[in-house]
Amino acid sequence: MNETQFNTFLNALSVPQDSKSIYKLLVNIRKELDWPQHRQNILKIRSEGCLGQLVSILQMPQRYIMDVCLSILGNCMMDKGCARDLVGIHNIISSLNHILKHHQKSDSINGRIFRIIGNMCQHKKDQWATLVIDNKPYIVTHIVELLKKSAAYEIPPDEKYSEATLSMAIRTLRMLLNCRTVIPLVKDFGVLKAVGSLFIKVSTEWQEHQTNQNLLHHIIRLLYDYSRYKYYNSILEMTNTERGNALLHLNNVLFLSPKKIVKIIMNFIKISQLHSELPVTEICDNLVDFILHRYLNPEGVDTSNSSSTSTDYLECVQCLCLLLEHPANKTLDRCGKCVPVLIRVLDSWSELDATQLKCCILLVTTLSQCQYDDGIIREQLKHHVIRVLLKKLQWIYGTSNTLKENHDEVKIRNPVNKKRAGRHAQQNTTKRKKALGSEPSAGSSKTSSPSTSSSGLLEEGCLRPTLRKQYSTSPSSSDDEYCPARYDRSPSPCSSIGSDLATFQALSPRRCSLSPTHDDEDEESDSDDYSPVCSDAEDDKKSSSENEEDDSNENQKTAELLDDIECDNEEDSEEKQSQALPEEPNIVHLKSLLVTEIAILISCIIRVDPKIPELGTEEMLVALLKCSTYFKPTVSTKINTVDIVLRILDSAKYLIPLMKTKFIETIYDLTKVQHNQFCNKCDNYKFVGKLILRQMTTLAESGVGKGEIAYTLLRGGEQVKQQLLLVIPYIHRDKSLLVKYMHFCDGLHVLIKLSKNEGDLKKRAIKTLCMMAADKLNIANPKDVALNLSQTRTIKDKYKLAEDCEHIVSFKLDDGSVFQADRQFLSDRSEFFRGLLSGHFRESSEDVVRLTNVKKKSLACLLHLLKNLSNKVETVDIKQDLETLLDVLVLSDRFLLSDICDTVVNSVEKFRISARNVPMIYRWSLESGTNLLRVESVAFALVVEISDAERFKMFNDMFQLGYTEELTDDIHTLLARYLYNVPIKMKVRDLLSPCWDNV
């Protein structure tokens, strides 16, 4: 139909006509008023002044005309301006009240009038709902009586109403609700009592025949809206209906709309006075059974076809979490069955996608909110929550127990401030240790405090939930609102915990939302399902189109009503809601949120029971350290997992088990920096490593620790003894105590034995011996302590015979070569050559002297040194290969050139010794019989700062020389010399006294 024809129809309304013509005219107009496609036509009706004519047509006696006219007015009410004119100018409420009185039993008229009133109230809910209740209470009374009659066991044929009419009646009672009308609607009109009776009847029929499902959705939605107002009479009305307690029947239709039903219970629980008033336990058990039998097999593995897209599965899990939010439900009696199921569900999710990460965050948050009930915490421990949390941490950061990673140097912008920050964190930790039972350090106080710890999850773009005022008759804080996540915790077990539906919206994917008839956040029309039958055949053809009279805009506004307590204007709510919509968080951010929540839950568990075996395992401690900002910059800074590790290590129960693992060695590796002191990452590694080693040292050197270690060394098997001795040097600062373990407990012998035997512990034993030598015994590196006897000189030229030399002696070597030298110079500088060349030996009269076991290159180097060095030991860098220098040492010792020998030894120590040539030097020392550089090479091998791989290769090369016993003896002698020079402060009996009585 074109615009001209529609204008013709509107103009015809002002012309007097008979009833049939008016009916045809109204039908044609109705065809062009579908909302919102024909919104301009509705505006044209208002601008042409036809609204008054339509209201006057309602006075006509023909019912079929009245039906079509009411349908048109219902669509016109979708526009604010039309609704304002119809109510304020044309007083349509009085007309509707009059029609209802004369057509009480007409199904189609009642349904259309209810729709008009509902559409009217959605625009100015406070004003016009109050106007209807104060000035035309008959409308409300009539609706309540209609519902009561429909809830009766036997209904007369002329009083039976269609499902569409009943749905519109329920919707009208919901649209009349606001903070001013809730008391009269509930107390004076008995709305909830009538709705409750109808709900019992309809829910029973639905269980048996699966009928009236749409009507049930409308009733559940009404109960949800009424439950949001803190008015205790609402519970009384629902529990005392003519058919019984309507609240108990919520459990019967739970899976028709789980979210809303659980929300109804959570809203009512805030004002309930008796535990028996609400079926919390029944709903909890129903949800648990549904999840167990449909989605989890006995092993706890997810058996759904697609768990990440199963809306029913996610919705039921979220409902369980919602039930546990209120303090009244956090008991084993009411919701104790939820805990093991939630843990099994958490364990079953193992895909690193946004959906499952959000759900895991919700589950862990829910478990941590039960921190004030020790019974529930112990129930979590009973069902291995620590093991599941460890799997989640390893799920995110991997199963490797390696903490230190190779990295490029990261410069600190302000090194001074960084060091101050480190000292400040260390002081905070020290204060925490000194104060028994005090709160954690400032760096971690937000972790253990339930009122502030969750704020860390709201950083990096997350929005906080809107704080809402609460009045006695205002909706509760569980209004529907968009928020990325709700993580606020109650500061005490008596405080109310908000149950915003934002948890569902934020932690469940959009694709997992329910169908429009299930979720009030989806855009649905409250009047789409209403299509009363018109009395005329032509109107019957149009009845189907009336099912779509309300548009998506109405649906959206209806779903957003009461989003703000102080403002019921749906446009303002829509604007606020659209501004609060966050962007989809990325995977990295979700991982950070999950890790933070896991850390908070572990902190709560430590408070209840700090001596849980699963907490003190190497895997758990390493996983917690990986979560720290010192290792992962993407993790929230509001949670300090290093402090959690320190709190775990406060217990001596974990000392011996950890000493049997590689955890202490892993922590020690953190203290060895890869770059200089201005590398930020190295500084972080070193700070954390020293902090934890200090804690382990305090524990190991305490009375309990010493007793446990001594008893285990004495009574444990050989394998256990080896495991403990491998880590004892790392965590003992008291050298006298270290002496007792190494000497009286035969620790040094065990470590050296492990280092020479091929096996899994060889590398660890070598590493431990080197660490003890360098860090505990402070054995100096020969390279660092080589004598600086003079200003360093470099000698690199070769020996040359002087041109003016008068007395030449030729030395004939084993290879047949001849080397000439100045006879007088040799006699003057060396007593050996003076006696050989100028004494009473045969060689003194010979010009050619035979020297055996001498190489020409070595002899030339020796004579060159003799020529260039004075008669004292000097510091020189001799530019010769190491083999030649070692041969020079043999010659200098043979020819009694002690100063030259000392000079060469000092030069090798300072400029030539390295990890690569230490095996060669040690072998030369033994095979030459001089023992020169023997101790120095062993000391260098023990204390040189090189990588573990280079160290292991160096020692393997030394052991493969064929002098294993000599090498182990040298290592033992060197370490024992430094060990036993330490004064013994206590006797071995005193060392073992804590456990002596048990031996």
From TrEMBL:
Comp. bias intervals (Low complexity): 437-460
Protein name as catalogued: BTB domain-containing protein
BTB domain location: 805-875
One cellular component term from this protein's GO annotations in UniProt: cytosol
GO biological process assignments: anatomical structure morphogenesis
Biased composition (Acidic residues): 519-529
Annotated segments matching region Disordered: 408-498, 512-559
Domain of life the protein comes from: Eukaryota
Pfam families: ARM_ARMC5, BTB
